Amino acid sequence: MGKSIEELVFVVEEAPEGGYTAKALGVSIVTEGDDLEELRNQIVDAVQCHFPQESNRPRIIRLHMVKDEVFAP
Description:
Elements: E1 7-14, E2 20-24, E3 30-33, H1 36-50, E4 60-66
Parallel strand pairs: 1-4
Antiparallel strand pairs: 1-2, 2-3
InterPro entries: TTHA1013/TTHA0281-like
Protein name: 2-oxoisovalerate dehydrogenase, E1 component beta subunit
């Protein structure tokens, strides 16, 4: 895969059906989990699959938690 990535950012959102989804920015990785602990494990597994060579894997994985709230005043 060419040049290694120092940091990989995932946008994490609550899924409408429950649980969480995570989408990487700049890389085609999408995963989900029933809770945040499972989601973290799924992200690590997905990153390892996407970057089979350990030397090319990002050293840091950042989760950007997005919470969408809608309410009427």
